[in-house]
Amino acid sequence: MDDAVAESAQALRLGVRWHHGFAELGPSFSTELAPTPLAGPHLVSLNVPLARELGLDPALLASPPGVAAWTGNLPLEGSRPLASVYSGHQFGVWAGQLGDGRAILLGGIATPAGVQELQLKGAGRTPYSRMGDGRAVLRSSIREYLCSEAMQGLGIPTTRALVVTGSPQPVRREEVETAAVVTRVAPSFVRFGHFEHFAARGQEEPLRQLADYVIDTFYPECRAGARLAGNPYAALLEQVSERTAALVAQWQAAGFCHGVMNTDNMSILGLTIDYGPFQFLDAFVPDHICNHSDDTGRYAYNRQPNVAYWNLFCLGQALLPLIADQELALAALESYKTVFPRELEMRMRAKLGLGEEQPGDRELVEGILKLLAADRVDYPVFWRRLSRFVAGDGLDPVRDLFLDREGFDGWRLHYEARLPHDRQAASQGMLRTNPNYVLRNHLCELAIRQAKLGDFSEVEALLRLVQSPFEDHPGDDDKAGFPPDWAAHIEISCSS
Question: Where are the active-site residues found (predicted)?
Answer without folding.
Answer: 264
